Amino acid sequence: MAQASTSPNYDQYRESIAGRADVEDTPELVAYYRQLEQLKAGALWTVANKIEPWQPKSASVPVLWRYRDLREHVLRSVELVTPEKAGRRVIYLNNPGRQEVSAAVGWLYSGLQVMHPGEAASAHAHSASALRFIMEGQGAYTVVDGHKMTLGANDFVLTPNGTWHEHGVEAGGLPCIWQDGLDIPLVNAMEAGFYVVHPDLRQAVGHPVDDSTALWGAPALRPHGLAWNKPYSPLFKYEWAPTYEALVRHASVSDGNPFDDVLMHYTNPVTGGYVMPTIGASMQRLRPGFAGKAHRHTGSFLYQVAKGRGHSIINGQRFDWQERDIFCVPSWAWHEHANASQTEDACLFCFSDLPVMEKLDLYREEALADNGGHQPVSAPA
Q1: Model-level pTM greater than 0.85?
Q2: Quick check: 176 and 141 in contact, CB under 8 A?
Q3: Rounded to whole angstroms, how far apart are CA atoms 373 and 259?
Q4: Mean pLDDT rounded to a whole number for the chain
Q5: CA terminus-to-terminus distance, the chain
Q6: Burial class of residue 219 in the structure, from the number of CB atoms within 10 Å of its CB (0-12 exposed, 13-18 middle, 19+ buried)
Q7: pLDDT bracket for residue 83 (50, 70, 90)
């Protein structure tokens, strides 16, 4: 029996379109390509259509991580490993299309961390920017460069790149679970990752507890005589109650937008820009009965349901979600959100690489023009 050919197919990406690479393999060309490979080189026309697609082609796939399925496994990790041994006791979210970089979507990492009362993780610093969104429990805290913050459900806290940070749960608290979000895959792709453990494993708290909120948390007010020139927000903690109140006030005077209803971005109170250079975050309120139209944009987005229930259709697939579920929208994926209730609102927290997209002038957005702006649904997830 004749053996199947193992010769590479160098013309697999050719396109019969003017202006695109359309070179067919010949024995002479194949021999030429192999000679180039020996020199650690190659002919651009063999890969040009692959590396310069007509539009973004994300390797990530839409995923819904149901909290009710994950929670028992997150809690079980407490019985299996200690924070001291694990460094951080986290169950990370692994997108099937991004497993090689441990990403939840695109170049963004996410995981669910659990700590019991009296536990504390050691202080450390790293090149990746990070955030936490509190899911459940009582008594959680984070210390960032000597600033200690107490944390409650749906609070959002920053640990910007290069800052000393640690976290734990007070002895009198309850078991706490929160979502971690970082740009680890992006930093590693840039080959710029560093990690340092604090020499004392703990840092001194050098400021009054929750001082960043007291100083910088007042809406439209900036403290006099307080300088801040770092590239991230001095407001390390964004509390849920004033965030939700702002969404309600916004909704009372606005019709919202057809895609996201009432959407507000967390900002740096000094600049009005994003909270960190590489990660942006937002909260949106879907009013009762809201059914958004579909659009798509560049950038990777990871959502956590802060309140309510509903569904999202992502590239034609329906994902039904409820409070604390997490789902992702890959870059350039069609998506639309809907609130399942006619009487209660729903709120979605989101973090993304939107600051990177905008700074590099790579952000693009497009609305779905067909079918009244709604996608046909293939199957529920």
Answers
A1: yes
A2: no
A3: 9
A4: 96
A5: 45
A6: exposed
A7: confident
